[in-house]
Design a protein that fits this description.
The chain is mainly α. The protein contains six helices and no strands.
C-alpha cells in the first residue's frame, strides 16, 4: 500500500518526478524550457506545503507567475495528465486526493483567466 503525502520531502520528490515528465514532453517542454528546476523546486514545494500541509509562508501570486507563458488547453491537458499520473504512481490517501482536486481547480481558474472559457478537465483522473 502506498503512503499519503505527509512531509515536504514527499512533496519535493513528487514534484521533482512530475516536472521531470513535463520537461521531457514535446508539448510542455517548450513552455518550461526557461525553468531552472533545482532553483525553482523549493518554491514549488513551498506552494504545495502551503496548500496540502497548511504550512504558512507562501504569499506569491501563482497565476501571475504563469500568465505570460502562452499556455493553452493542450498544455493544461498534458500538465494535468502528468500530475495525476505521478500522483497516482507515488501516493494514495486524502492529502493526495486534495492535491488532485486543487490542481483541477487551478487549471480551470488559469484557463478561465487566460481564455475567458471554462474547462472542467473532468476526463483526467
Amino acid at each position: 500500500m502506498k503512503q499519503d503525502i505527509k512531509t515536504e520531502k514527499d512533496i519535493e520528490n513528487w514534484q521533482n518526478a512530475f516536472y521531470s515528465k513535463l520537461l521531457a514532453d514535446p508539448i510542455t517542454a517548450p513552455k518550461f524550457a526557461h525553468l531552472d528546476l533545482p532553483k525553482h523546486l523549493p518554491r514549488i514545494v513551498e506552494f504545495w506545503a502551503f496548500v496540502l500541509l497548511e504550512k504558512e509562508g507562501y504569499k506569491t501570486n501563482v497565476f501571475e507567475k504563469h500568465m505570460f507563458l502562452g499556455l493553452e488547453k493542450i498544455h493544461f491537458d498534458a500538465w494535468l495528465t502528468y500530475f495525476f499520473e505521478t500522483s497516482n504512481e507515488m501516493f494514495e490517501g486524502p492529502i493526495v486526493d486534495t492535491a488532485k482536486s486543487r490542481v483541477k481547480l487551478l487549471a480551470t481558474t488559469f484557463m478561465h483567466k487566460l481564455s475567458g472559457e471554462y474547462f472542467l478537465f473532468d476526463d483526467i483522473k
